[in-house]
């Protein structure tokens, strides 16, 4: 029998709080984000989940969310693998900008295209921008050609999928219980793939911070069912709040 999969977006980050496009910028969790991570751990404990392995990105908001959830679960010894392929979608030249101000400047429709269209990436970051990932030592061992200067959701899925197939799927097929702690858009990419969501429907999907989503899968890793743990209405409201982040300032 295949194992169970939990997807968990990190808790509120400093730039979630400030409503800024984040992408690959390595901002920390806020105090509320840490509380969300602990609350996620509590929900996982209530569900009686015992994890065999956990995967996360190379960004501290996801790594620390995982630590706090595992601590709350009293499973701090679980094997953890960090990988750049689970990083957030690279937001190109938008990284650091205020979402509502960007909507006021470019229009909500354009910002919705940048945030949620399937295959239109935001404008790229300049190659010589000091924030470009090729200047970041954590990616130094990678071929610089794989490092993005911007990404659409389609490009994000393209780089998440090899890690899914090589690292995550085999563990699930072996019957293990797997926790993936990552980001709003790297998880949207994975959810699109797992749930077979159409390109024009994924634009309406938003993932709330710090609420675990539990998947039951069959032998071929087809989804039997998935649900957010805890209060379903709260998860819905939190997803809507994410959708509304780029509403222009009145
Ligand atoms: O800023 C980002 O990197 C993401 C996730 O926080 O934002 P959005 O929901 O606008 O895609």
Short characterization:
The chain has a 6-stranded mixed β-sheet with strand order 3-2-4-1-5-6.
Key words describing this protein structure:
250 residues; alpha/beta; Rossmann fold; 6-stranded mixed beta sheet; 9 helices; 6 strands; 12% strand; binds 2-phosphoglyceric acid
How would you sum up this structure, described in words?
Helix 3 links the parallel strand 2 and strand 3 (79-82). Strands 3-2-4-1-5-6 form a 6-stranded mixed beta sheet. The chain has a single domain (4-246), classed as Phosphoglycerate mutase-like (Rossmann fold, 3-Layer(aba) Sandwich), CATH 3.40.50.1240. The chain has 9 helices and 6 strands, in the order E-H-H-E-H-E-H-H-H-E-H-H-E-E-H. It is 40% helix and 12% strand. It binds 2-phosphoglyceric acid.
Instruction: Estimate the strand proportion.
Output: 5-15%
**What is the total tally of β strands?**
6
Number of helices: 9
CATH H-level homologous superfamily name: Phosphoglycerate mutase-like
Distinct compounds present: 2-phosphoglyceric acid
Largest sheet at a glance? Answer: 6 strands, mixed
The helix/strand class is alpha/beta
Strand order of the largest sheet: 3-2-4-1-5-6
Tell me the Rg in angstroms. Answer: 17 Å
Return residue spans where pLDDT drops below 50 for at least 5 consecutive residues: none
Count of individual domains? 1
Spatial separation of the terminal alpha carbons: 53 Å
In the CATH hierarchy, what is the class?
Answer: Alpha Beta
Helix content: 25-40%
Query: What is the approximate shape?
Result: globular
Q: What is the CATH topology?
A: Rossmann fold
Second rung of CATH, namely the architecture: 3-Layer(aba) Sandwich
Q: Report the mean per-residue pLDDT as an integer.
A: 96
Organism: Salinisphaera aquimarina
Enzyme class: isomerase
Subunit structure: Homodimer.
Function: Catalyzes the interconversion of 2-phosphoglycerate and 3-phosphoglycerate.
């Amino acid at each position: 029998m295949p194992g169970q999969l939990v997807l968990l977006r990190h808790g509120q980050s400093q730039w979630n709080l400030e409503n800024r496009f984040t992408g690959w910028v390595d901002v920390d969790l806020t105090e509320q984000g840490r509380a969300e991570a602990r609350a996620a751990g509590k929900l996982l404990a209530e569900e009686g989940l015992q994890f065999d392995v956990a995967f996360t990105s190379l960004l501290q908001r996801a790594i620390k969310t995982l630590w706090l959830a595992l601590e709350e679960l009293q499973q701090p010894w679980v094997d953890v693998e960090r990988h750049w392929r689970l990083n957030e979608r690279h937001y190109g030249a938008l990284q650091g900008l205020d979402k509502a101000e960007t909507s006021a400047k470019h229009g909500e429709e354009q910002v919705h295209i940048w945030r949620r269209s399937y295959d239109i990436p935001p404008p790229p970051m300049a190659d010589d921008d000091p924030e470009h990932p090729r200047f970041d030592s954590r990616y130094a061992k990678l071929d610089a050609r794989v490092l993005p200067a911007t990404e659409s959701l389609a490009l994000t899925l393209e780089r998440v999928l090899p890690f899914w197939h090589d690292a995550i799927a085999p563990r699930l097929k072996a019957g293990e219980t797997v926790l993936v702690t990552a980001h709003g858009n790297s998880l949207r990419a994975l959810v699109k793939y797992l749930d077979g969501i159409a390109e024009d429907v994924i634009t309406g999907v938003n993932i709330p911070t710090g609420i675990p989503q539990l998947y039951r899968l069959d032998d071929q890793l087809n989804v039997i069912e998935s649900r957010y743990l805890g209060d379903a209405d709260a998860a819905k409201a939190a997803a809507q709040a994410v959708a509304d982040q780029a509403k222009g300032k009145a």
